[in-house]
Amino acid sequence: MLEYTSTVVLKFTGNDGIFKSKEEYIKWVKESFLEDYGIFLETNEIHDIQEHLPPEYNDLAWEESDGIV
């Protein structure tokens, strides 16, 4: 009889929301996974964080860049 161990990697994509900072976003992801799935995440397990303006802010950003606001 042998003992077996393994590493299981799960990938969840999306996880989007609007936050004031990357740190605030990471905190939300960790809290959400614990609450929704009972999964405790370490910060180093959260990868490929991308930052962009949400569509509803694109018009405002365009106006600000032209000095129209």
Secondary-structure topology with pairs:
Elements: H1 22-37, H2 55-65
Which key phrases capture this entry?
69 residues; 0% strand
Summarize the structure in words:
39% of the residues lie in helices and 0% in strands. The protein is mainly α and 69 residues long. It has a domain at 22-65. 1% of the residues are buried. The model has no long low-confidence stretch (mean pLDDT 85).
Which class best fits the helix and strand makeup? mainly alpha
Strand content: under 5%
* Strand and helix order: HH
The average pLDDT value, as a whole number, equals 85
What does the radius of gyration come to? 18 Å
Strand runs, count: 0
Shape: elongated
- Largest beta-sheet details: none
Give me the number of helical elements. 2
Please report the distance between the alpha carbons of the first and last residues: 73 Å
Runs with pLDDT <50, length 5+? none
Helix content: 25-40%
Brief account:
The protein is 39% helix and 0% strand. The protein has 69 residues and is mostly helical.
